[in-house]
Amino acid sequence: MKKLIVLFLFPVLLFGQTELDNINAFFQKKQFVKAEKIVLEYLKKHPNNIKAIEFLGDAYGHQKKWDDAIIQYKKLVNKHQNNANYHYKYGGALGMKALSVNKLKALGIIGDVKKAFLKAAKLDKNHIDTRWALVELYMQLPVILGGSKNKSLGFAKELENLSKVDGYLAKGYIYEYDDDPELAEKYYKMAISEGGSLTCFNKLTTLYENQKQPEKAIKNIEAAQQKHQRNALHYQIGKVAAEYNTQLEKGETCLQTYIANYSAKDGVPIAWAYYRLAQIYKHQKNKEKALKHVNLAISELPNIKAFKKEKERILKL
After folding, report:
1. What is the per-residue DSSP string for 183-234?
2. Cβ atoms of 92 and 68 closer than 8 Å
3. Boundary (domain end) residue, out of 94, 124, 154
4. Domains in the chain, number
5. Per-residue pLDDT tens for 100-129?
6. Model confidence pTM above 0.90
7. Is residue 154 part of a domain?
8. C-alpha angle 156-161-167 in degrees, rounded to nearest 5
9. Structural domain containing residue 31
10. Per-residue pLDDT tens for 301-314?
11. pLDDT at position 21 over 70
């Protein structure tokens, strides 16, 4: 259930324009503690404001305070039993709590998770996120607890009727989880043909990496780069090359390009590009360059254990 839910925690409406601006600013900056404090102050004067309660639940969710989030979402469900999104968020918080406790306690929560998601799906025939949650839930639950590939496929079909891309991705996920990489590849490719988003490409790349098919992974990343022109994809190619000791010259060139064009929006810290270059130079038996780049990685992020272990390996060359 590790990837059970992606909670969408940004309500469109709130309780006043000034408060809305302040809260949105804190959420955009990921300052969820400050957002929590503002909403709590507002709720002292307006304890029954539905949007404020929802926002408080969202603030707790972002901080992984699952018990607190559950309390707030439960209030919403009790007050508005026909609101699909409230059931979805309630189920999501319960699901995340189940992941944070021991298996015995989790068993007592799963039934409520399933109930909340099924209620949301029943209330809103077009709720894509709920159907995704059910696809993953039914695949990841043991059969004895109600897990069912057929039910998962059923919700994937509902997704396909709402969005072909989501349907294809869901089926790819199901078959990948069920250890059927050929069918997973088929549906991920269909998702790429239908939508072509980076998410679609990334799903196929991850499948190839998990199947230890680095050549296919690199080819797919190159196709994504041709379509999307993202610097982050240069890092991805270098990462695969370094990890699998393949196409090292291409990996080196891509990592150098990533470093030359790096900005914070690329996501992966530049230290990791230095680390991957060090791995490539190690594969090439170039101890001097490998040591230089692993030291650059360590200087950027001195607390990463992987960097230090790599330096130990390089020193043994």
Report:
1. HHHHHHHHHHHHT--HHHHHHHHHHHHHTT-HHHHHHHHHHHHHHH--HHHH
2. no
3. 124
4. 2
5. 888 888 888 999 999 999 999 999 999 999
6. no
7. no
8. 35
9. 1-124
10. 999 999 999 999 99
11. no
